[in-house]
Every structure is written in C-alpha cells, then in structure tokens.
Amino acid sequence: MKLRHLLAIEGMRREEIEALFSAAARLRQAGPTAKPLAGQTVANLFFEPSTRTRASFELAAQALGAQVLNWSAQGSSTTKGETLLDTVRNIVAMGPKVVVIRHPLSGAAAFVAEHVQCAVVNAGDGQHEHPSQGLLDGFTLHNRLGALSGKRIAIVGDIRHSRVARSNLHCLTALGAEVVLCGPPPLLPAGLAACGARVICDMDQAIEGADAVMMLRIQKERQAQGLLPKPEEYRRRWGMTQARAAKLKETALVMHPGPINRGLELDGEVADGPRSLVLEQVRNGLVMRQAILEACA
Ligand code: CP
After folding, report:
1. 4 lies in a domain?
2. Over the stretch 179-211, which tens digit does the pLDDT of each residue have?
3. Residue 236 counted as domain residue
4. N or C, which end of the chain is more exposed by having fewer CB within 10 Å?
5. How far is the CA of 125 from the centre of ligand 1 (A)?
6. Residue 227 has pLDDT above 90, yes or no
C-alpha cells in the first residue's frame, strides 16, 4: 500500500481502507519489523491544539525510525504574521519526508499538498476531514465487530461542524455499514444523506438497534452562536447518559474521539464503563498512524 498523501477519506476505495486496516493489524501484532523512515524526518505542524493526534503521530514516526520535528503555531513566527505557505515552505526546506498538518481552515492540507514535494497527511482541516481519526475509528470497529457491512453505526452530535463525523461517514459507508447521523436540527445537514447516511433528529430512535454509537464533542462556541440548546437540554435530548446507555443493545459499543465534555455529550460513567472504546481508539491510533506513515514512506 502506497500513499502519495492522505488528505481525506472521501474518494478512497474500500480496498485502500482495508489495506490500511491490514497494515495496522500487522503492526499491532508484530510491531514494526523494519524502519522505513530511518534517517528521515516527519514534521508535525499543528496550527490548532491537539493531545491525541500529535502525540500518536510523534510516537508512530519514532517507531518507524524517523526523527520528529514538532512545530506548533503558538510561539512560532505565525504570531508575527508569517503565512501558512511561507511557514510550510520553510519547514519543508529542512527536508522532511512527511508533513503532518492540522489547520483551522477546511482545505488547508490539500492546499499545502499542491505546493510541496513531500507527502502531506491531514491531521484535521477545519470542518472538512480528520482522515486518520476516521481510519482508526473504522479499524477499532472492524476489530470489535468484524466486517462492517450491514452493521448499524450512529454518529451523534454536531454533525455540521465535525471533521470526525465526515471522515467516519466516508470510511464506514465505503465499508458497507449503515450510518445514522443524529443531532439538533441546525447541526444536521440534510445534504449528507446523499453520502448514504440516514439522518434522524431523535436520539432514542437513532440509536435503537445500533451496534455502536459514536458521540461527538460539542464545540461550546456553537452555544454562543445560538445553534445549540442549553447544556442541560442538550444532554437530555442528545447526550449519552447512563440511562440512555442502559437502553442500548446489550453488545452495543460507545465511542468518542476525545476530548470529552463529561456530563454533556457523554456521561463519565459511560465513558469509563464496559461499553466504552475511548482508550482503545487511542491505542489503535498509534498503529493506524504507523500504517499511514509507512504507506507515505
Ligand atoms: N481526536 C482528536 O483529534 O484529538 P486531539 O484534538 O487531542 O488530537
């Protein structure tokens, strides 16, 4: 499996996704048996904060033999007005094999890819996609549920602004899963039904019979914009409360990409309970990101 870049899951073929799952499974089983990035540099460029994505790309790159250049906007010359393109061109002049980039603008990773020779991995661009998250989530579900064809996966929360939702939607539908999108009507773009998802506002209806429910982080600034009900109302209608989790199918799994607003979209007891895959997602992120970097090497 070779990747020129990883910019989005939309447009990826099922075989490409499954090849990355196989590579991640091999890496989890045997560890990296070669160092395909020995003597190379992976540059992590984060124009937005991150805990999981940045740390796991760093560890994944090191596991493959690379040295890692960690750059974040805070404390950089971005604060003096240096442009995205100038920043990236200067970092690329230092010779990285792969640039991993997170940026608040949708399309930023694709823009960068058009202007550099090295591989570019999108670590989250605005409201567009977060492909490594979608792949690690799909891998986690595949490990737990087997083939995802016909499995029912509900994604609940701020669908409109979520790059995680978009990447998961493309990943899961490519694998034949039945995806249900659920959230407050202003945050539920009907256009996504064209991607093969069902769109349901009522959470109890959306999660009925689900094999897994993926909860999304509520971006609190949406409350200030009047797009969301008050927190208590949100939790009652679209939160994975303990009471709601108890009504799920016995084998149903609960996911969240992190960071979690405990007691808002997801009760702490559910996040830490037996259905939760939250930390398994993080563990799988390490090997999925190794698989992605290996494919870009
Ligand atoms: N899931 C995710 O992208 O988490 P971080 O923002 O901490 O990287």
Report:
1. no
2. 999 999 989 887 877 788 999 999 999 999 999
3. yes
4. N
5. 12
6. no
